[in-house]
Amino acid sequence: MPAVMLRVRWPDSTVSECYSPSTVIKDFLQAGNAYPLADFVERTQSALTLASERVQAKYGFACSAAADQMQDIQIRARDFTGTQDAVVTVESVVESISAQDATRSSTN
Questions:
Q1: What is the rounded CA–CA span in Å between residue 78 and residue 97?
Q2: Is 39 within 8 Å of 46 (Cβ atoms)?
Q3: Where are the domains of the chain?
Q4: d(CA 18, CA 6)
Q5: With 18 labelled, which of 50, 59, 73, 79 sits at a CA distance of 20 to 30 A?
Q6: pLDDT 10s digit of each residue in the chain, 108 long?
Q7: Is residue 25 within 8 Å of 92, Cβ to Cβ?
Q8: With contact defined as beta carbons under 8 Å apart, do 46 and 73 qualify?
Q9: Helix and strand tally (H, E) in the chain?
Q10: Rounded to the nearest 5°, which phi and psi values hold at 51?
């Protein structure tokens, strides 16, 4: 299952790398787009929940990394609560093969 790394710029111009275990996140966020803070949090929560469900369907267990990423985003977003016109910009979206799939394909 391909994973996706997002590079996001927060309202204070700091940059974070965010992980999704599924390409479904690309249905919710696009590189180059700026999202109001609350919208960004809502989109990532929806996308990461769906991504974790896809992992569950494929491997039989939910993705704890997706849950951790959701929590990290929510914690970081709290830093900007009350900041007028706070936006998060998705700078890049890079798809890569997951470590688990890489291991499986190298043994086949």
A1: 31
A2: no
A3: 2-107
A4: 5
A5: 59
A6: 789 999 999 999 999 999 999 999 999 999 999 999 999 999 999 999 999 999 999 999 988 999 999 999 999 999 999 999 999 999 999 998 655 444 333 334
A7: no
A8: no
A9: 3, 4
A10: -60, -45
Rounded to an integer, what distance in angstroms lies between the CA atom of residue 53 and that of residue 34?
26
Say how many C-beta atoms besides its own lie within 10 A of residue 37's C-beta.
20
Up-side HSE of residue 76: CA atoms within 13 Å toward CB?
A: 24
H or E stretch covering 18: strand 15-20
pTM across the whole model? 0.85
SS (H, E, C) 24-58: HHHHCCCCCCEEEHHHHHHHHHHHHHHHHHHHHHH
